[in-house]
Amino acid sequence: MAECSAMRESFPLLLTESLDARSRELTHQHIESCSECGAEWLATKETWRLMEALPELTPPPRMRQRFLAEIGVEEKPVESNILSFPKRTWARWLSQAAAVVIVAGGSYLYGHRTQPVRLAPQQATLNSIQPVSIAESRVVKSSALSPNIEGRPDIENVQFIDTNPNDDEVSLSFDITQHMTVTGNRSDKSMVQLMAYVMQNEDKAQPSTTRAIDIVKQTYANSHQPEPEIAGAVARVLRNDEHEGVRIKAVDTLKTLPTATSETREALIAALKNDPNPAVRIKAVDALAKIAASGQLDQAAVDTLRQKAMQDDENLYVRTKAAEALKKLNP
Amino acid sequence: MMNSFLRTGGLAVALFACASLFAATHTERFTRDFPLGIGGSLWIENPVGDVEVIGVEGSTLSVSVTKNVNAPDATSLGEGREQTQVYMGGDGKAFVVRTVVGAPPGAKWKSNVSYSIRVPRVAQVHIVAAVGERIRVAGISSAVTVKNFSADITLENIAGAVTVDTTNGDIHFITDARPAAAVQLSTINGGIEVQVNPDSNLDWIAQSISGDVRTNFPVKGRFSGNGFRGLVNGIGGPTIATTAVMGNIFMLKRGGRQDEIKSLRAVIENSGGPTIFKKTAIETPLVQGNFIYPASADIVSFNIGEIRGFANIATAAGQVNLGTVMGDVTVRSGGGPFDFGAVFGVINAHTDAGEVNVGNAYKGGEISTSGGTLQVTFSGGPLTLQNGGGDIVVRHAASSVSAETRSGDLSITLDPNSRSQRITAKTTKGNVFLAVGQRFGADVEATVLTSNDEANPIHADFNGLTIKRDQFNGKTRIRATGKIGGGGEKVELYSEEGEIRITQR
């Protein structure tokens, strides 16, 4: 315990690097072996650091005079026509006095640092929340960026941009690979748009577009909430995908979706007219018949089904299906 | 209690009576006359209701209109009257009669407008009508066109060119004279009856994929494709084209004998085989022995509960549903779905279009479709599956499986007790899923070709697979090879732009 006291007394000297090498080594060894002195040393260092940050103040003349009087030092008046050079002794005393004041003040601050800071309760007001958007490219102010980087995201294609060397503003541009999980209600606008985008972003869809369509079908089939964006995205897959298996799934999904947009209808008509795979055409017949039967008679759908039923070189089963679909229509 | 019951019942009856009282029909009739010159034309558009147009002498067009509105209450009735409008206008050369019905979605009222029109005989008549019971045009010496969805259409004594298109209606073309102009009649689900002067010479075209074609005229001609083209009586007449996709076609002598009417199949001899298709359905719960339906151009649907022998079916199109077949199954179809319950023999089945669903294929076989989902619940013998486009699913394979689809997912689940089976599964667009049992062993070669060079598309519940990547035709090829479960038969899996997943159950 006595050793601890002696060691703590040497902390200021250690801070000012005034200890000789041996004492310094002994003090450090003690700090490492004694947890209490270690904590005290850290606190002292923190106090020292805080004091460094404090602005240097010149004591008011009256205070200085009083201080000097108390310690028995008389301040000589400065002759006006002579440039005075303060004596080293006086300067040393003054610096020591300032150090005492600073250390005393710092100790006071340190001693009261654990006191809780009480703030008057205030009503919290949330002014706005900026929604996160998924974008191909984005410019962000550094002030809007959290200083915490979570995990180790892959950063590539880094560019440093300093458009104006005369100011302090710089830019850092990079590609970042980020795995994002979006959770929300199936009818949220953002979720609908995201689903539609994912389905059409064929090359990056994992495991595949067919799986994406399956998910869309499970999520939105027979939903009470019509989602034209989803129907439109599936319609575009039906129009554009080169693989018949994908198109079969797309047309199957369109049949179950509650929304029949003009884009949906046109995609189905195009599939029935031109798709080379008979299974796609058969399913397009069913889907078009459903559209034609809902609400008012859809003349374009009826005309396409008629045309298909009459087409000599069409598969007989497709023709029969088209005719049967027309027969069921009861406008 | 009894009084309360009576009061409640009485109130209900009274309310019902009031509702019945409010349910009202408004009928409005009026007639307008207009001049229509020689060579003029009459255009009629009527979405709901009947149309009758009679040709008369003179140059006056007389339009009689009957507008009916039905509604459950006075407000709806008023709205229906307001929203059902008849517009008439034109000049001496062309005159338009049009019904406009502005029924909003969920309207409580319904309306229809019927027209009875007297038009100069020499005027052209063009009718576009969606829904109705009857359209009749008679005594017109100029051209007539009718387009319609569901009404029966009767044309009597039309001397000019005729074009009729209907979806679900029947067409009757009747004339006492010998036709002198081209006639084109087509319906999808209705039938066609043509009655002309017995001395008429006609160039007759008849097409139907599932109806019969019958006549009591002397006819010469031949079948081509799915239609007939020939001469009625002899050369020199106009062309009369009759197309009834699903219905029957009759070409009859006006005033001729009913008992002389025969199917064209019987009339035309040495025609090289009938190709007028007739749809039939064969439904029976049990066939004691073998079931053979020879190669036929007919559209035939089969629904057979059990066949004690083998089944051999060839059909132009139609559904084939077989419950249990004790022997082999051989089916060829130009299009239509297959559904087989349990087949104890070998299956050899192909359809040009449609889904295939097989319950138990105890001896396996070869099954293919040009497009549609192909699904086998159980296979007990070597199974080869091919799909022109669509998924292939084998839920329980106790045999080797070779499955290939041009695009679609492949899912094969092996018997959990199977120690090794040769499996080949290929898709050029889609995923491959293979589930094997705990004791399964095989030499695996799984390949994915993808345009995503960062993809990691092969997943296996087993250690020991070596994964290599290289570039192939501008794409990234990922190959996983090695032995699982100590090795065994070869398992070859291939996917483009998808993933391969091998799981252990």
The portion of residues forming beta strands of chain B comes to over 45%
Strand order of the largest sheet of chain B: 24-26-28-30-32-34-36-38-44-40-43-42
Number of helices of chain B: 3
What are the low-pLDDT stretches of chain B, counting only 5+ consecutive residues below 50? 15-20, 269-277
Give the chain pair forming the largest contact, with residue counts.
Answer: A-B, 43 and 61 residues
Number of self-contained structural domains of chain B: 2
Question: In CATH terms, what is the architecture of one domain in chain A?
Answer: Alpha Horseshoe
- CATH top level class name of one domain in chain A: Mainly Alpha
How far is it from the N-terminal to the C-terminal residue of chain A, by CA?
Answer: 101 Å
The quaternary state of the protein chains shown equals heterodimer
**What is the rounded Rg of chain B?**
33 Å
- Strand fraction band of chain A? under 5%
Structural class of chain A: mainly alpha
Q: What gyration radius of chain A follows from the Cα positions, in whole Å? A: 40 Å
- CATH fold-type name of one domain in chain A: Leucine-rich Repeat Variant
- Counting DSSP E segments of at least 2 residues, the number of strands of chain B comes to 45
- Name the helicity range of chain B: under 10%
Which structural class is indicated by helix and strand composition of chain B? mainly beta
Major sheet attributes of chain B: 12 strands, mixed
> What overall geometry of chain B do the principal axes of the alpha carbons give?
elongated
How would you name the CATH homologous superfamily of one domain in chain A? Leucine-rich Repeat Variant
